[in-house]
Batch of 2 targets.
Target 1
Amino acid sequence: MSAPQDVLLKLCETLEARKGADAKTSYVASLYAKGVDGIAKKIGEEAAETIIAAKNDDDQALIRELADLWFHSLVLMAHRGLTLQQLGEELARRSGTSGHAEKAARPQ
Ligand SMILES: N=c1c2ncn([C@@H]3O[C@H](COP(=O)(O)OP(=O)(O)OP(=O)(O)O)[C@@H](O)[C@H]3O)c2ncn1[C@@H]1O[C@H](COP(=O)(O)O)[C@@H](O)[C@H]1O
């Protein structure tokens, strides 16, 4: 079984590679073709499905919905030219600070 970070890195490589793919054969390419609005709509749907799953006891169902949510979020990042490196840097910047202090330091 691959380490989670390796799975994420490989998926991000695949998402980059799909930028020139045919929307008829690639789900990711079909999302890119829908643009930010279409991808964001899927993220909204997956977020709602995650909330519903969180209120039930089926852990595997919750994992599946979270995976859908993370996947579509990574598609949005790739579409906008953002990288896992940038996401990691933002989370690392917050590491070790209290969540309340992090919120207070955010640009308004
Ligand atoms: N990880 C995923 C992944 N997770 C979820 N999905 C798709 O996300 C969709 C989830 O949407 P829903 O649950 O709403 O299901 P749906 O009703 O079928 O979706 P819609 O038709 O309404 O969009 C499904 O179509 C899933 O197949 C994914 N599609 C692709 N990947 C990865 O992306 C790679 C590239 O995919 P292609 O671009 O299709 O080659 C794949 O090899 C995988 O590694």
Target 2
Amino acid sequence: MADLDVDVVVIGAGPVGENVADRAHQQGLSAAVVEAGLVGGECSYYACIPSKALLRPVDLKAAVDRMPGVDAGPIDVAAVLARRDQFANPDDSGQADWLSGAGITLLRGHGRLTGERAVEVTHDDGTTTSVSARNVVVATGSVPASPPVDGIADVGAWTNREATQVKEIPSSLVILGGGVVGVEMATAYQRLGARVTLVQHGERLVPGTEPEAGRRVQASLEADGVDIRLGTSMTAVRRDGDEVVATLGDGSEVRAAELLVAAGRRSTTDDLGLETVGLEPGKPLAADDSTTVLGDWLYAVGDASTGAKLTHMGKYQARICGDVVVARSRGEELGGRYSKHAATAEQTAVPQVIFTDPQIAAVGHTEASARDAGLSVRAVSYEIGSVAGGSLQADDYDGFATIVVDTEREVIVGATFVGQDVADMVHAATIAVVGEVPLSRLWHAVPSFPTMSEVWLRLLEAYGM
Ligand SMILES: Cc1cc2nc3c(=O)[nH]c(=O)nc-3n(C[C@H](O)[C@H](O)[C@H](O)COP(=O)(O)OP(=O)(O)OC[C@H]3O[C@@H](n4cnc5c(N)ncnc54)[C@H](O)[C@@H]3O)c2cc1C
Ligand SMILES: NC(=O)c1ccc[n+]([C@@H]2O[C@H](COP(=O)([O-])OP(=O)(O)OC[C@H]3O[C@@H](n4cnc5c(N)ncnc54)[C@H](O)[C@@H]3O)[C@@H](O)[C@H]2O)c1
């Protein structure tokens, strides 16, 4: 007999795990979540929330500085860090209270599968709780990947945790990785007073985006004074007194007070008992569109899975997963594409906002990824500064929009917006992509004057409407 028997046990109470439990519980199932660290996961304390709390003030100051007649004054770094603490104080009692208030059992400890529909939780004091559950959901998130750099384990390198919880901005920072974390943290730290060097082994920053987006962010970071080293890897790193000394592939050395490793993330599936159910530990769990991994009982969502490593996509998978578990518990058939039981947007319309200056807000395909997927596409671009709303938003507005049009169906399969304050513009594109709205109908979606959304009209005209 297990110590606890529930309909659903979720391993990992990050934003994604919490949402699965809530969705299933709200529809009448009993649910428990197992959490080894903080309820709320990486996103709340060490990732999305604190990083954006560091970025919003520097973004706002840059916008004000671009506007004649208003004066932002210098940044009060201590006040910025204090406000960050209000958002991301690593105390999870509020989130734990929310779970218990919602009627979801919280088991603090490390969860492992011990066989089909069976989980054991090892608590901090070494005691264990056995849980039997009709459904087991893996929502264990991810940890930073460690690139193969000699000496990296011995220099006290920062991960996203130290970077987002920092108490004092270091005089200098070398960042390994020019992906999303790398460019966001380069923006924040350079503008909060550190001298930043960014090392990226590819030829461009944020490689998954339209190439011009990476170039604009690079130009802006360089204008801020960030030293960007593209096309070179870090090969070795050592401490020399108070400094870290990084050796790059071209033989050059970079010295800085701290090193931040931002070289991607690895799904946390290595110590999860996956071998007890015939799965290989240490890899992202491959789930189908219904988020199912095995049979009708094992599911994977969020960063632990092969899906997009983004909070909003994980929470979308969580809603799908909760509804699938509920449907199966009621003996109902699962619906198809675009039902509540299929995470179809994972294949067609993943949105992401990168909070650099300029911001990059994109959804669906880039031109290159659409061609790689075998689509016949035409991409058109337009400078946002050339529409009245853009020129009013900022002098010399630096930014553009691109739409990728499937020429056979005449629908948009991807869009990218780059520039100041474009974050919220991407959702209109997400609706157009998911809705497969024909261009002939989009022509009647009239953007208000004078807003930056008028770029939609110019894009359609550029396409030939
Ligand atoms: C610096 C940074 C900034 C980011 N900014 C954004 C952003 O702006 N927008 C965005 O959409 N995404 C952002 N992301 C990505 C986002 O943080 C992740 O996609 C999101 O946290 C994934 O949620 P999750 O619940 O799957 O995993 P996590 O948040 O990692 O939570 C997993 C939880 O599972 C627990 N756990 C793991 N193993 C076990 C176990 N065996 N037993 C019990 N508990 C366990 C962990 O302690 C953790 O609390 C950012 C990431 C980083 C690193
Ligand atoms: N605003 C957001 O949505 C947001 C913000 C931060 C992070 N995230 C998510 O968190 C995840 C992790 O972000 P990330 O930036 O760590 O990963 P990433 O995969 O976006 O970027 C890692 C980068 O590091 C580079 N790299 C890897 N090894 C290297 C080496 N040895 N030397 C030099 N460069 C090297 C890669 O070329 C790559 O560009 C991503 O999935 C991202 O989407 C999202």
